[in-house]
Amino acid sequence: MLRGFYTATAGMISQQRRMEMMSNNLSNANTPGYKADQGSLRSFPDMLLQRMEQASGTNTFSPMSNPNDPVRLSTGVYLQETKPKHTQGDLRPTGNDTDLAILNQNLPENASVYFTVEQVDGTPRYTRNGNFSIDSEGYLTTNSGLYVLDENENRIQIRSRSMFVQQDGTILEGDIRNTRLGIALANNPDELVREGNGLYRTAENVPLLQNAVGEPGVNYSISQGHIERSNVDTAQAMSDMTAAYRAFEANQKVIQAYDMSMQKAANEIGRIN
């Protein structure tokens, strides 16, 4: 009976973690470039049980079962590692020249592209949030103050009031070419490590391939005056939260039933008349 406590408790913990994951997704539904987390439930390895009496030749199994077959017992469920869903979000027009969005057009399967920014320690970070601005020194920065980098991993400084960004990421000031945005290609974005503020990094801070638009099968475009919305499906997230809450309640009732049975066993079965 104690195994039932552990199994139901594992179910409650996994559903609680699902609720936390989906709550975080909903809270970032309006964050530009945010990628919704997704996770799946997996069962712990089954436990194999076998009667000790078999060693002495005694068969206490049911006649309907094979005494030589071990019995499988599930030991609970857990929420596997959560990973972002790197699908394209909708583009929303803002009219701001410093707002940029990446539109995926033709990329390798499961691949994604990102803006390159400079972390405080000088290492590169990657983001889909193109809600940029120009600081007091004329540098293009993120909303958290990190410098946006060009294709040579240099900071981008805008010296005039007019800035035009072409679809390939080339930045023009009037008719003069300034530089080109550093757009990084991740062939397997699931290997990226998520940080706060919509930032990603590689496991060992190894820079990703820059400006792979010329590579076979790689095509994207930059849309100025737009930002990419999050890819959170709010209706689906609310439905999943309701299902997780009901599953949590079901496991809670199982624990209550086990508790009543344990109480009855302790107070009544062992009573001496």
Automatic annotation (TrEMBL):
Pfam families: Flg_bb_rod (PF00460), Flg_bbr_C (PF06429), LlgE_F_G_D1 (PF22692). The keyword Isomerase does not apply. The keyword Disulfide bond does not apply. Keywords: Bacterial flagellum, Cell projection, Cilium, Flagellum. It comes from the Bacteria. Residues 5-35 form the Flagellar basal body rod protein N-terminal domain. Residues 114-171 form the Flagellar hook protein FlgE/F/G-like D1 domain. It is found in: Bacterial flagellum basal body. InterPro entries: Flag_bb_rod_N, Flagellar_basal_body_rod_CS, Flagellar_FlgE/F/G, Flg_bb/hook_C_dom, FlgE/F/G-like, LlgE_F_G-like_D1. Its main location: other. Residues 224-267 form the Flagellar basal-body/hook protein C-terminal domain. Belongs to the flagella basal body rod proteins family. PANTHER family: FLAGELLAR BASAL-BODY ROD PROTEIN FLGG, FLAGELLAR PROTEIN. This is Flagellar biosynthesis protein FlgC. It comes from Sutcliffiella horikoshii.
